[in-house]
Amino acid sequence: MTVKSRRQQLEEMLAEDPNDAFLRYGLAMDYVSAGDDATAARHFHDLVQADAAYVAGYMQGGQALARLGRTDEARALWQRGVAQARAQGNAHAAEEMTGMIDGLD
Predict the structure, then answer these.
(1) What would the pLDDT profile of 35-52 be if each residue is shown by its tens digit?
(2) DSSP assignment, residue 4?
(3) 68-85 burial, b for 16+ CB within 10 Å, e for fewer?
(4) Of 19, 40, 60, 103, which residue is 20 to 30 A from 9 by alpha carbon distance?
């Protein structure tokens, strides 16, 4: 019997439910942990497209983009995340992303 990796399990579950935000976030974070920020950034993009309210996707996605040197994209993603966080009353996340934006300048 072959033991499946966490990534394989997440990918299989996502194949069944491609819009599951929690699974998409977990898969993106698995790529971050593996040092593959480019693939992680694509999954974070897909995440916030499927579920615009998933604030952590903006935060982590922006960080992946920033690590890739794609600062304009990171800034734009964080700005969208700040707006989403404020709309949800999540001042802490909004402040964190605002600080990340300010750190780019």
Answers:
(1) 999 999 999 999 999 999
(2) P
(3) eebeebbbebbebbbebb
(4) 60
